[in-house]
Amino acid sequence: MKPNKPFHIVLIEPEIPPNTGNIGRLCAATGTVLHLVGKLGFSIDDKHLKRAGLDYWPEVNLQRWDSLVALQTRFPDGRFWYMSKKAEKNYTQVEFTAGDFLVFGKETKGLPEELLDRAGDMALRIPIFSSAVRSLNLANSAAIILYEGLRQTEQLEE
Fold first, then answer.
1. In the chain, fewer beta carbons within 10 Å around the N or the C end?
2. Cβ atoms of residues 145 and 137 within 8 Å
C-alpha cells in the first residue's frame, strides 16, 4: 500500500553510498520520496549504493536538487523538519503530517549551524543516552523518524 500523500526524506550532501542505498530501500518499502541535495560523496551509479539498495532502485521515487533552496522553492507549502543531535526538541514531541519533509545532513558534519538556527522549533533530535556515542547512523536515523511519522499518520495499517 502506497500512501496517498507520501513523506519525503531529504539527504543533504550524503557521503557514504551504503547509507543512501539503505535509505533508498527504506523509501521503496514505504512509498517515500527520496531527495538528494547538493554535491554527493559518490556517484549514483556506485556499486556500493546499488548493493545496499539491492534491486529496489527502480521502485524509488528519486529526485535530485542542486540546493535545498531549489527544493523548498518547488514545494513552498512543504513542512520541513531538520534532524540534528544539536536540536533541543525530541522527535517524539511533535506531530508529523503526511507529506512532511524529513531533512538530514551529511554523515560527517550534519546540517549547517545557520540552517539549524533558522529552523528553530522545526529542528529535532533523536536522544542518545551515552556520551561515548557521537551520533547514530544516517540510515537508522531516517528509519526511526520516518516510521514515527508513518505511525502518527496511521499509515502502518495494511
1. C
2. no
